[in-house]
Amino acid sequence: DIQMAQSPSSLSASVGDRVTITCRASQSISRYLNWYQQEPGKAPKLLIYAASSVQSGVPSRFSGSGSGTEYTLTITSLQPEDFATYFCQQTYGAPPTFGQGTKVEIK
Amino acid sequence: QVQLQESGPGLVKPSQTLSLTCSVSGVSISGGSYYWSWIRQPAGKGLEWIGRINAGGRTNYNPSLKSRVTISVDTSKNQFSLILSSVTAADTAVYYCAMGGIWGPDAFDIWGQGTKVTVSS
Known about the structure:
- The complex is a heterodimer.
- Chain A is an all-beta fold.
- Chain A is built from no helices and eleven strands.
- In chain B, the strands form two sheets. In chain B, strands 2, 4, 5, 6, 9, 10 and 11 form a seven-stranded mixed beta sheet that branches. Chain B has a four-stranded antiparallel beta sheet with strand order 1-3-8-7, with no helix packed on it.
């Protein structure tokens, strides 16, 4: 299986901050990388697909980038509703696998 | 508007079989190029893909669970189901059903709300 390592595992930030989350794959995944947001007690929500394409309805403050084995999710100007856990997922190899998550907490 | 809803027992005894159903509304499960997956999440932990089925009934399973998993589809009821045999405490988790296909078979843009399953005697 392709292993996905997210960093950091958690972070504290303030409303208005710029936040960057990194995901590293154990091998090249050719931008087959998705990002999800999960609020407590809820199902994950697809934010970004194919490394940098923003899902319909997702605010423009969310963006994704990367290539090869390294990918980032950036949230510009963090909003109160953005405090959640974020997961990356690779779909290049079978089975699809997820990172362990990054919890974004209020500072 | 596509919606998914999981159902099934919340408590299963060790060594027994876990059975869950996902009811789909807003789209025909047998139409289009959609893929229907099961994913689970132990409390406080990450996400694990269990497997998927497509409209034609073709299945793909996570090798770590393949010997114990069966996913099937009932087009007459617009549902798909998960069977996991010989469960242990390690199978305790929230189980989600999800739809993929618009952005790739495993890009899950629609999820059910999840159902908590506890394995305990």
